[in-house]
Design a protein that fits this description.
4 helices, mainly alpha
């Protein structure tokens, strides 16, 4: 079995660390997609650029803050609550 296949989990099967990693990866993917769009627009409009990405972006409390800033906090919280409700049964 390949490594990627061995890491596949449903929300019910995933532990807290796996849920945190999955959340961080979703936010990273959204950031990457938006970054590509922004770079294209910047290039097309010949705008100036400033580059900065904090290494703490996807760590701990910052995960929730950045999910909010990316307008993804509500779906992230919903998934976490669904997981919590399933675990309490």
């Amino acid at each position: 079995m390949r490594k990627a296949e061995s890491q596949l989990r449903t929300v019910e099967e995933a532990n807290d660390a796996q849920m945190m990693r999955a959340s961080a990866l979703v936010l990273r993917d959204v950031m990457a997609e938006r970054s590509v769009d922004t770079m294209r627009e910047t290039r097309e409009e010949h705008r100036r650029q400033v580059h900065y990405l904090s290494m703490e972006f996807l760590m701990g409390r910052s995960l929730m803050k950045n999910a909010f800033n990316l307008a993804l906090l509500e779906p992230l919280v919903q998934v976490c609550w669904q997981r919590l409700l399933r675990l309490s049964r």
